[in-house]
Amino acid sequence: MSHTIREKTKLLARVRRIRGQVEALERALDTEKGCAEILHQIAATRGAISGLMAEVLEEHIRTHIADPSIASDDERTKGADELIDVLRAYIK
Fold first, then answer.
1. Averaged pLDDT, 35-42
2. What is the per-residue DSSP string for 16-34?
3. Distance between CA atoms of 80 and 84, rounded to whole angstroms?
4. Is the pLDDT score of 92 beyond 90?
């Protein structure tokens, strides 16, 4: 079972909170709030997304790279390659 499926409820709750933050940002822009308030909303949303990313990355590393039950070097390499691809996309 995938770690994202095991943690589905928790991850979905985080995504729903992020959706709420994005909607608050949209409302702030729509109602022409001040730039400081909008910047705070952007920072909060970015922080929430980064936290979600960190949580899923951590579980990916623990499950697909560092798990001592992984006997196959090919399987471990596949997990590492997937992580590298995601990190490259993330830091672009």
1. 96
2. HHHHHHHHHHHHHHHTT--
3. 6
4. no
